[in-house]
Amino acid sequence: MAHERNDHQVVIYGSWISSFTARVKIALKLKGIDYEYVEEDITNKSQMMLNYNPIHKKVPILVHQGRPIVESQVILEYIDENWSHAPKLLPEDPYEKAKIRFWAKFILV
Fold this sequence. Notes:
Elements: E1 10-14, H1 19-31, E2 36-39, H2 47-52, E3 61-64, E4 67-70, H3 72-82, H4 94-108
Parallel strand pairs: 1-2
Antiparallel strand pairs: 1-3, 3-4
Helix pairs in contact: 1-3
């Protein structure tokens, strides 16, 4: 279900146990973006995953057109900005957007 440019070139490296991976998958589904999912064994990380995220060495990783994006919040913002069709993941109003970001970080702590 491709809505915009090169949707077929989206790959998520994740883990079934990761709520951070789940939120990225949910965002892509809300936007209607097709993606390939690669399950990572977090106890035996693949070389590909380590190459894509050499600093934190963790999932999720979204690879779009061969370029990796890491950290779930950063990935969500990328998804919302790159695939700008509805539904929006964050509101346009800066105050409302700040509230959403606060609660997203609060829940993660």
